Amino acid sequence: MASLVRNILILGPQGSGKGTQAGLLAGKLKLAHIETGKMFRRMAKRSTPLGRRINRIMNEKGKLIPDALANRILWQALKKVRRSQGIVFDGFPRTLAQARTLDRLMKRLGRQITLVINMPISRRTTIRRLSLRRTCDRCGRIFIAGKNISPRRVTCPVCGGKIFQREDDKPAAIAGRLAAYRILTKPVIRYYRDRHVLLTVDGEPPVQAVFKNILKLFT
Questions:
Q1: What does the alpha-carbon distance between residue 89 and residue 83 come to, in Å, rounded to a whole number?
Q2: What CATH class does 7-120+172-218 carry?
Q3: How far apart are CA 142 and CA 119, in angstroms?
Q4: 168 touches 57 (CB < 8 A)
Q5: Three-state SS at 213
Q6: Exposure winner among 52, 155, 183, 200, fewest CB in 10 A?
Q7: Averaged in consecutive runs of 10 residues, what is the pLDDT profile of the chain (219 residues)?
């Protein structure tokens, strides 16, 4: 890469495995993992004006967090990462305005995006994967019904928390999220392609196969 400190974005539609791959990459390359979706979900559980606002937007309406609010939360997270450590982002930026703002925020910290990994999957795959996804309300771990957890299980095998299906993983919300992705996020892909930092890795294969292909980008 052009910089010793790698700052990487992972893009892709819902269900493409961005979070999983970002987590694996963070562990492999010792990067800070900034997952805005998890930050927003954590805030949405809080009984505060901000928490209730985020809950209404994400869970009740199935919409994206407004740029101004997302940018403010991101800036607070960015400032906490030590300067010598690289970052892998997933779930941000989701709009062209966010991408441009991220560039400005990174520049203020003496950083720049060095690689953007796009992970496309089909609409059918998105619906299938998200419909089977379950989340623990205590530790936040994600499970796949019928794969690593029984479809009938109601308690987390790790911490004993309650297993539930997120509102934005239900069919009506999935359709809305995909529509927002097509309208708002695809211009982000073009933005980074034009800057010659975008590479594509197919998100359809199993997790380890995708990760193996991502690691090839660094050899």
A1: 16
A2: alpha beta
A3: 19
A4: no
A5: helix
A6: 183
A7: 76 90 96 90 88 87 83 91 95 89 95 96 89 89 90 93 88 81 89 97 96 94
Residue ranges of domains in the chain:
7-120+172-218
Q: Which two tokens stand for residue 153?
A: 């299980």
Going from the C-alpha of 64 to that of each of 21, 41, 109, 199, the distances in angstroms are 22, 12, 26, 25
Q: Kindly state the DSSP code that residue 66 receives in the 8-state scheme.
A: P
| Residues 29, 86 contacting (CB under 8 angstroms) | yes
What's the pTM value of the predicted model, to 2 decimals? 0.80
DSSP state of 111: -
Cβ atoms within 10 A of the Cβ of 35, count? Answer: 21
Nearest to 92 by CA among 111, 120, 110, 113: 113
Q: What angle do CA 147, 217, 181 make, to 5 degrees?
A: 60
Is the CA virtual torsion 142, 148, 152, 157 positive or negative?
A: negative
Q: How far apart are CA 174 and CA 136, in angstroms?
A: 19
Give the full edge-to-edge strand order of the sheet including 142-144. Answer: 142-144, 133-136, 163-164
57 residue type, one letter:
I
Q: Hey, what are 76's tokens?
A: 């607070």
